[in-house]
Design brief:
2 copies of one chain form a homodimer.
Chain A (H helix, E strand, L loop, with lengths): L3 H12 L4 H13 L5 E3 H9 L5 H13 L3 E6 L2 E6 L1 H14 L11 E5 L5 H13 L3 E4 L2 E5 L6 H7 L7 E6 L6 H11 L2 H24 L7 H19 L15 H27 L1 E2 L2 E2 L5 H4 L7 H4 L2
Antiparallel strand pairs in A: 1-3, 2-3, 4-6, 4-7, 5-6, 8-9
């Protein structure tokens, strides 16, 4: 009979269609990007095989990722090795800064306000969309806003978006406390927080049963292979939700914010499987220079270092 | 034959219809508000008579101003004395802070931004109108903005407007220099600067000829009476334009701003007639306690004290 953990894994895989490229991105991001970012195609197939992804499926996916600029290929003899590109690595680092947070980002109460009134209609639509991906919400007709993130250089951003001339950029603080309530309502509405909360809720409902299963599991059941599979699916589904989240600061969120609950759940599960999962990848992965290097320091800073105690070798 | 100065005065009076209440407000504001704010109705009539405003016209006007809360009446025997009310005085002080500036207000580059998105439609319209009077411009659909004035307490203002709950108030600075040009264009458009400039232009065209006339006039022509009439009309027309001006800081205005040219012209003319005009009012005005008091210190701070040298007694 199938073990309950395998049942859980199979159920998670079946619950919604999983794109091969997206899953392989999750694998590179979570397990390889801090370990050189390169792997033999054969190892990749071996890692994914048990999850039901065949050799051909993996080949097709990495080929597509290569065309999209995420991966470079290197051939040695008859073997192909796929390595993250510079551009791919940059995108991973950016996504990672959101995925592996331990809590909502700190906030000094300031806002970045971008007035698009002067941009042409099509240009305005483009900017709204791009800024939306970057966590900006539309708080009035042509006014995009985001709580200021220390990391975000808005001026540089506007340069990258080719929007320096049409956009008026204000950095604002928010000195008038009486409208606090009004502001929260507006934030919930403009950032579609109930939609984001629903995605998190779905994640929580899917992965909460795993807590119980892991609590019941003894060492013989919690094999490195299962740990790897659990960790990959955990991060894959968490990533897909987090990247839809504007990651607003605590002060602007409801008191019981599903995002933080989901994050805490993810951290708890990650802690329990990370060490064995990492060992499993070490075991199976081959690179052009032999074994995978040990994870770099950045790896252990994930989730604010919370996952560290369990993952030190 | 009519002297050229009288001709100028008559022409200024005829060029556009003058409301009696508005002219009397100008007189109280300019000549009386720093000298106790009270005058006998008979003196008021005497001051205005030579400008072609009859006794009955003056009576009707002060009666209306009393009903509107600007003036209080006190009777002693058969004589009526009209005194500025508390409320009237407050409004005068507010208007005065705009009229008798020597230059565009200093600015630290900050903005007050008021987001009206949450207000109901009718309420929004009311607030836009009220804020417009206070120098705010609409820079996006439901976003009112004004360069921060050190004197303006926006939070208190929102309280007075009963708008604390619906309005979101940001104080912003403007750190991104590339959109400077865009900002100026927006300001010119949103504050209808070309319209304001046209009003100032009209004022300049009307009063510039007076410079020449005053230069040619010797002491015997420049009588206290004529000086009084000139000063009253000068401030009356200047006031009516200034109160339409959002009084934006220099940095946001065109390099050759008609507002500053008109202001400089007004200051130059004011300097030449102020002393004799003030003497004339002293001569004619009677109050419940006898002669008008000498002007208070605030009077000599007008136009940044620029008018002082000529007006010290």
């Amino acid at each position: 009979m199938e073990h309950k953990l395998d049942e859980f894994i199979r159920h998670a895989l079946d619950a919604q269609p999983i794109s091969g490229t997206s899953l392989i991105i999750s694998l590179y991001g979570d397990a390889l990007s801090h370990r050189g970012g390169e792997i033999w195609l054969g190892s990749l197939s071996a890692l994914l095989e048990a999850l039901g992804f065949g050799d051909r499926f993996v080949r097709t996916s990495v080929f597509r990722l290569q065309k999209e600029g995420w991966l470079d290929v290197e051939k040695m003899g008859r073997r192909s090795y796929y390595r993250l590109t510079e551009q791919g690595m940059r995108q991973f680092r950016h996504a990672e800064s959101k995925i592996y947070l331990s809590e909502q980002p700190a906030w000094d109460g300031k806002w970045d306000l971008l007035l698009l009134e002067n941009a042409e209609k099509a240009e305005r639509a483009r900017l709204k969309k791009e800024l939306g991906w970057l966590g900006f919400g539309q708080i009035a007709n042509n006014l995009m806003a985001a709580p200021t993130h220390a990391q975000t250089d808005v001026a540089a951003l506007l340069g990258e978006l080719n929007a320096g001339e049409q956009v008026i950029y204000f950095r604002a603080d928010y000195p008038y406390n009486r409208s606090e309530q009004t502001l929260r309502q507006m934030v919930a509405y403009c950032w579609s927080l109930s939609e984001v909360a629903a995605y998190y809720h779905e994640f929580i409902v899917s992965f909460r049963p795993l807590m119980m299963l892991l609590r019941e599991a003894d060492g013989s059941v919690l094999t490195p292979k299962r740990c790897f599979q659990i960790k990959l699916l955990l991060i894959h589904f968490f990533r897909r939700v987090v990247l839809k989240d504007p990651l607003l600061p605590d002060a602007l969120l409801p008191a019981q914010w599903e995002g933080q609950i989901a994050r805490n759940l993810c951290i708890n599960l990650y802690q329990q499987v990370d060490r064995a999962a990492t060992e499993y990848v070490s075991e199976l992965a081959e690179t052009t220079i032999g074994a995978l290097p040990a994870p770099g320091a950045g790896y252990y800073r994930r989730f604010g270092g919370l996952a560290r105690t369990h993952t030190t070798f």
